[in-house]
């Protein structure tokens, strides 16, 4: 992992950007562990979070970063106890990546970690989108946005598809939501953590359209798409959790389909979310196939057969819209 660290003009802000290398196909979901001498080892909030993180497929760079966050917070406590300075850093973040790459899940885990480490008083998680923030008349948007910020105090406010707040231009009420958000970040400073999430290119363009935003979000994390082996492992986890299993033929069929999707669908592919939809649909198809039988064995109840996996209705594009203009100049992402 290559990491660029840049100090900005704003006090106590460190910009962290992860440049992900090509995926390591030999290492899927490598657990993040501590050595016996590591002060962060043993029982505690990090271990609880890592247990959840290690259940996720991939995201090894993200897991390492969360360990860094924990270590920094813990050492800060020890510095203060030793009478040394331990200045607070801004923890507002940008999560960039396609749907189904784990952005919301990681944000939820961070909210728990920050609560346990004393960064946040409550550690609750508030998730909103454009419709929750943008009102119907002048002043309504500011009111709605402030209301959600107040609800998030002591916790994490997660705004999904944050770039959509800027899609209407200067006359759109979304700009009012952005301005209110910026003011709230000043008014409440370290009382909550704001995470903006969305597609990578759209988020870059969004930050470029509002020059005051990048410096307020010192941590930018890129969530990469899953590769084929990771998607198959995700499918296996989902099936096992539901107490099903894929037959050998069904497994081969799913693998071939996902391989084809990865080759043909770059911007519309839903990653883990897409796999979940396929598995849930297959479970329903299996139920329809079995319902007419008088006697059903335990093995039949558990097994998803090749015929239960149908992909025709998923062959079309997902229909996700994008306001981003590909002809816009690519911004420098700090």
UniProtKB/TrEMBL annotation:
Q: Which Pfam families match?
A: AAA, AAA_lid_6
Annotated InterPro entries: AAA+_ATPase, AAA_lid_6, ATPase_AAA_core, CbxX/CfxQ, CbxX/CfxQ_RuBisCO_ESX, P-loop_NTPase, Spore_V_K
- Molecular function terms from GO: ATP binding; ATP hydrolysis activity
Where does the AAA+ ATPase domain lie? 89-227
Q: Which UniProt keywords apply?
A: ATP-binding, Nucleotide-binding
Q: Which Gene3D superfamilies match?
A: 1.10.8.60, P-loop containing nucleotide triphosphate hydrolases
Q: Entry's PANTHER family?
A: AAA-TYPE ATPASE FAMILY PROTEIN / ANKYRIN REPEAT FAMILY PROTEIN (PTHR43392), AAA-TYPE ATPASE FAMILY PROTEIN _ ANKYRIN REPEAT FAMILY PROTEIN (PTHR43392:SF2)
Which family is this protein grouped under? Belongs to the CbxX/CfxQ family.
Identification of the protein by name: Stage V sporulation protein K
């Amino acid at each position: 992992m290559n990491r660029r660290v840049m100090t900005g003009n704003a006090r106590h802000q460190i910009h962290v950007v992860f440049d992900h290398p090509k995926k390591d196909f030999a290492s899927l979901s490598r657990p993040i562990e501590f050595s016996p001498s590591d002060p962060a080892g043993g029982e505690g909030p990090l271990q609880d979070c890592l247990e959840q993180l290690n259940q996720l497929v991939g995201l090894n760079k993200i897991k390492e970063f969360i360990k860094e966050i924990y270590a920094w917070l813990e050492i800060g406590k020890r510095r203060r106890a030793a009478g040394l300075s331990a200045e607070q850093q801004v923890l507002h973040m940008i999560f960039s990546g396609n749907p189904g790459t784990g952005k919301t899940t990681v944000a939820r885990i961070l909210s728990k970690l920050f609560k346990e480490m004393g960064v946040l008083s409550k550690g609750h998680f508030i998730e909103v989108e454009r419709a929750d923030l943008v009102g119907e008349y002048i002043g309504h948007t500011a009111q709605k946005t402030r209301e959600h910020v107040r609800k998030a105090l002591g916790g994490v406010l997660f705004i999904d598809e944050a770039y959509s707040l800027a899609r209407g231009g200067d006359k759109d009420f979304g700009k009012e939501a952005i301005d209110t958000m910026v003011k709230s970040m000043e008014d409440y400073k370290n009382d909550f953590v704001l995470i903006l999430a969305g597609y990578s290119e759209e988020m870059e363009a969004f930050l470029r359209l509002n020059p005051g935003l990048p410096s307020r979000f010192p941590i930018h994390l890129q969530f990469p798409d899953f590769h084929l082996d990771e998607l198959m492992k995700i499918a296996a986890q989902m099936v096992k959790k539901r107490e099903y299993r894929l037959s050998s033929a069904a497994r081969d069929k799913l693998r071939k389909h996902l391989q084809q999707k990865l080759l043909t669908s770059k911007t519309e592919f839903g990653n883990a979310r897409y796999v979940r939809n396929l598995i849930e649909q297959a479970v329903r198809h299996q139920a329809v196939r079995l319902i007419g039988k008088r006697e059903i064995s335990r093995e039949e109840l558990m097994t998803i057969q090749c015929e239960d996996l149908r992909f025709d209705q998923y062959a079309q594009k997902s229909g996700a819209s994008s306001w981003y203009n590909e002809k816009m100049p690519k911004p420098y992402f700090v």
